[in-house]
Please model this.
Amino acid sequence: MSLRIGIDGGGSKTELILVDESGAIIAQHIGPGCNPSLLGPDKARATLVDALQHLLAQSPRPGVAVDATLLCMAGAPTFWQETSAGLTGYGRIVAVLDSLPVLELATAGGPGLVMHAGTGSFISARAPDGTVHYAGGLGWLFGDPGSGHDLGRRALARGLRELQGWAPRTALGDRIRSYTGIEVYGAISRSFYTAADANARIAGFTPHLLELAQAGNEPAQQVLIESLTGLVEQGEVVTARLFGNQATTCGVSGAILNHPAAAATLRNLVASRSWAVSLSFITATPIEGVRRLLTRL
Model:
């Protein structure tokens, strides 16, 4: 008997599964995010090791060896390859981009592409010749359109202008006050600039943005349009390069893009730009894509 470990490591969480010979999940653990671009290399590595230990502590087969581990990780690929080389006791370790699981969910190994948004965002595609390509995923410093961080940043900036008095007052400004628990514009601004977890707090405002957009708040809807337009533009470049004018399937992955407000905005953008893709909204989580990849490892 042998076991395998699959990991989906992102900015907001690290999800791990332990599977048996049939590919069935027999243990699961969710820990903090481990993206080295956000945490730094030492903390990212320590977070991964801690999560692995928690997962194996739940194993219903103590003493059974792990023969392979698949790391599907956000952040610099070279960092995770170097990290995996230093891990022992987890069998053969393969480190790949965190885009592969959602690409697997979108295309099942065939040609096509997927747009995914969590704390960050990216587009991954499998060309007709089988090669896999990656676009975006630049991180918070350079901006990932359609991501939780980008949406949160844009929404907070728009709402803070309301609280400054330079934009018409809407529910967006009021929601920022309730989200932060602070009434005064200047104090709200300082709270983000001085917080150690500022990136997480910025991305954490995105569910409020989506709720407001769904309720008809015009500034929130405009923020969605502006941010998702950038993601669609990236997708257009990818499809033009890899598929030409050929229509192809475009998976849409992640809770943000599958939210009704974001999904409606995406559909409208695709239709208005005559982008030759058929959107396929993926409800399975990335860890299911990891599980499927594990069966072929």
Summary: The chain has a mean pLDDT of 94.
